[in-house]
Amino acid sequence: MTGPVTRQPPILPGNAPLVFRGSGLTHVGRVRESNEDAILTDPDGALWAVVDGMGGYGHGDMAADIVIDRIASLADDALPAPGLRMLIEEANRLILARSAERGIAQMGATVVAAMIQNGVATIAWVGDCRAYLWRAGQLRQLTSDHSVVQELVDKGLLRADQREDHPQRHVVTRAVGIEPQIQIDTMSVQMMLRDRLVLCSDGLTACVSDAEIAAIMTRPADPRSSCRALALRALENGAPDNVSVVAIFAQEAD
């Protein structure tokens, strides 16, 4: 398992009532020859992301790296939702420019990012990377996939439990670096003591059910071992795609 890209923010004055400890990992999986996912972790801080590159032939990982680099530049005192949207929009322009310069037909990425500020987690996403909140034994999906299958579910044409068997389950309707204009969704949630936040690529959710994710997150563990347990379950279930996961725990300040 490869290590994450890590961003270390400056220490800010004052003590928050909660601290947020996290970890992440990304794995090539059992079928793919290369890993086009990328993650951003901030073990004692505020900013986290999972990016799933698309394009193959080294282009997907290039797109993913561009998205990670831009998100990592977010200032610690930035307004989370506008800041994340602005930097993902910048990444969109940079990927399109890089594609044009190199004559690449298409490369892009899906992304989910979280910034935790004053105890509030702000999530921004494009595509089918997901964010989940585990609280008091219950798992809730915070994001809604930008995908053909999700649109069918929303319209009542497909049951949610049928999505992983649908032939278009991997077709996304939004991605970074594909069109000049990009629509980015955001949402916020007040974090509570012992909450656990999970960010992941579709390589995890395609082969680990929400029930399995909930069961693993319910175990007494630290963020690193939770990430490892989730990735190992994906590998046990075949892991046909790259698998990436970040876990952040809300804990009492020391």
What structural keywords apply?
254 residues, alpha+beta, 28% helix, globular, five-stranded antiparallel sheet, Phosphatase 2c, domain 1
Task: Describe what you observe in this structure.
By secondary structure, the protein is of the alpha+beta class. It has one domain: PPM-type phosphatase domain (Phosphatase 2c, domain 1, 4-Layer Sandwich), CATH 3.60.40.10. Helix content is 28%, strand content 29%. It is built from 6 helices and 11 strands. It has a 6-stranded mixed sheet. The chain has a 5-stranded antiparallel sheet with strand order 2-11-10-7-8. Helix 1 (59-71) runs antiparallel to helix 2 (80-102). The protein is globular. The two termini are 30 Å apart. The model is unreliable at 8-16 (pLDDT under 50).
Blueprint of the fold:
Blueprint: E1 5-6, E2 18-27, E3 37-41, E4 47-54, H1 59-71, H2 80-102, E5 108-117, E6 120-126, E7 130-135, E8 138-141, H3 148-154, E9 185-190, E10 196-200, H4 202-205, H5 210-218, H6 223-236, E11 243-252
Parallel strand pairs: 1-3
Antiparallel strand pairs: 2-11, 3-4, 4-5, 5-6, 6-9, 7-8, 7-10, 10-11
Helix pairs in contact: 1-2
